[in-house]
Amino acid sequence: MIPEIGHFALVLALSLALCQGVLPLVGAHRNNAALMAVARPAANGQFVFVLIAFASLAASFLQSDFSVLYVANNSQLALPAIYKFSAVWGAHEGSLLLWALILCGWTAAVARFSRDLPEAFSSRVIAVLGLLSCGFLLFMLLTSNPFERIFPAPADGVDLNPLLQDPGLAYHPPVLYTGYVGFAVAFAFAVAAMLSGNLDRAWARWTRPWTIWAWCFLSVGIALGSWWSYYELGWGGWWFWDPVENASFMPWLVGTALIHSLAVTEKRGLFKSWTLLLAIAAFSLSLLGTFLVRSGVLVSVHAFATDPARGLFILMFLGVVIGGALTLYTLRAHTLDSDAGFKPLSRELFLLLNNVLLVVAAALILMGTLAPLAVEATGGGKISVGPSWYEFAFAIPMLPLLFLIGIGMHTAWRHQPQRGLWRQVKWPAAIALVAGVAVPVLVYGGSGLLVIVGSIAAFWIISASLVYPIRSWRRAPGTPGITRAAAGMAIAHFGVGLFVLGVTVVSAFGVEDDLRLAPGEPVEVAGYRFEMQGLANVEGPNYRAVEAEVEIRKGGEYVATVRPQERTYLVQQNPMTEAGIDAGWNRDLFVALGQPLGDGTWSVRLQYKPLIRFIWFGAVIMAIGGAVAASDRRYRLYAEARQGQAAAAEEPA
Amino acid sequence: MKPRQQRLLAVGLAAAGLLIATALTLKAFQKNMMFYIEIADVVAGNVPDDRNFRVGGLVLEGSVEKTPGTLETRFTLTDLANELPVSYTGVLPDLFREGQGIIAHGRLDAQGRFVADTVLAKHDENYMPPEVAESLKQHAAAKSAARDAAAVQE
Questions:
Q1: CA–CA distances in Å: residue A244 to residues A164, A226, A329, B11
Q2: ipTM entry
Q3: Per DSSP, what are the bridge partners of residue A591?
Q4: How far apart are the C-alpha atoms of A43 and A63, rounded to whole Å?
Q5: What is the phi/psi pair of residue A263, to 5°?
Q6: What's phi and psi for A359, nearest 5 deg?
Q7: Which of A34, A220, A362, A541 qualifies as a FRET site for B54, CA 20 to 30 Å off?
Q8: Which of A516, A623, A555, A479 is nearest to A179 (CA)?
Q9: CA distance B111 to chain A (A)
Q10: What tens digit of pLDDT does each residue of A520-576 get?
């Protein structure tokens, strides 16, 4: 019964999505208030029905209703309750349902918080979101119904993929999808602006907070995914340039370009058509990512459920969305040009460079991701592109960008006199040169061109982003302090600096070693002594494990004891490595068991990862900066002002 | 700057950036791309000798042996028709086992042994790397065709 309710709710949601996608568009075109008024109730109703569908699937999982094929394939009686719940989005059908739910959630939020926008405009935005939702709901109902039944029902399910039995699955996909799907809002704003043919600075001001919030979620989502693969996959790497990682990273790069370009459009009314193009590109890349992950055209550790029919549907959907948006763009973009200009040395120039470099980086990653497909299609054989290429290619646009960040932050709009600029950045530059050389050489005892360059870049961004906050803190009493927008910018760039420092240090000074670890025969890695203390058998709820106790000492002093496990999941009989990690703010020590070599000896992978936490911590700080900027008062003030105006207009003269 | 100049500047910068990036990356691309080579071709010696390549196949039942006192593992990779001896030193992936489809990165040594620096086994028991699946299908088809031909001759 419950699965049928869910299925029915999905069908109802699709009908509402159709109404929401078509009627308000017609209404906005004909200036018909009644049709436009459909938008908000339809959006809320659709959200409720998709939520019912989602709750039905969750209930089927929690009750272990194995007559539902999707539940039988991804759950099991002995699975802990938290994983039964997160298994809802553990595979293809359910993750699409989560995607649809989040899209409806964003739409409902837009419906709620867009009341101060012109009616025709907000109707168009909600309608475009409704059309996107139609595509996803149709996709689910036609090719990937999560409520499909199986008769007779199996007595027990085949369990959730052991890799996914981790709290990481509970938070990584929802946060990542919230970011991914959030770019749909920026996309809808762009399409609505092109439909109405009216793109002014107010448009950028409405779009900005939505885009920044989506970007924040995407940043945290990617960081969580990186952290999860670090401790769960057992390899100890934090980024693999896997096609699926690239699929989330390309929208992030373009989205980062978009939030910077929106700043220019809002403040100066420039870059309008470019901003539109970026908004289209960011969401298109999110869709492309879904296509790459779900169609199985690219081999990847994430592509667990693949089906050509699904790929074809997404490809067609992708064609309609991108083709439609770009057609509209060619028809309308030229009417949006502005006449204002800027001086060569100005913030506009640096934001332009930021955009060019970020887009080049995204294009390079796209090229690396699609190259194997292109080469095979043209008969060039089967190739793969290794991480070393991505690292090299990515560094080309990124290194100049890192150095430009510090200057760009301190440049004025329109025109920046050269002497003032130098006064702003001379202290950060000095700190960067000293700390950037001192830290690698004195703390880690090593140097090399890339390390020094990376570390100088990191300290340059960190110190440059502290200039505004320090000045605001030391300001004369009574003078205005730093705005939220400027504080957000400083925080986010500070996060970039920490991230760069983490990446530089861990790449240069991290140690990985595969060794034999025998009882009573300690081994030494990066100055730490690892000794096997003993092995024990451990019983989990749905797995058996061998657990090793490894003591870590440094210079004779006790540091930590870690307990890595080699698990065997009972239903699928899959082995799984559970790494033992001693985490610290400045370094991780990582022990993963390999294979037993007899007599209590194991092959192990031992790692020393200095500053690896800075990578994820830096990404979270970037997101916090985004959140601070997006909550700037002027976005609310504007809304209040408009409401005030409307109230004044209603009063009889 | 006037809008026209602005656009020119933007386009010029983008073009210059793209050109430099493309030139550098294409060069690096050629150096870094790794070909997938069928076991039959590897055995015949048709391999690039200046760089790593990928091979894939099934780990032959009964072929896995550890070299005592080290982390070296030796095994035989098969596409059901040809066999390739492989050696790998280090920790193998969790799902590495006999009969499993795997992919290895590395190069041939002078004795015709494939020295792998990476071994990948996908995290799903029934998973078969697509390249391996394709080449197995071809060989299985060839075998059954040969059997049919033999049956017809009899």
A1: 16, 12, 29, 31
A2: 0.79
A3: A580, A606
A4: 30
A5: -60, -45
A6: -70, -35
A7: A362
A8: A623
A9: 25
A10: 899 999 999 999 998 999 999 889 999 999 999 999 899 999 999 999 888 877 788
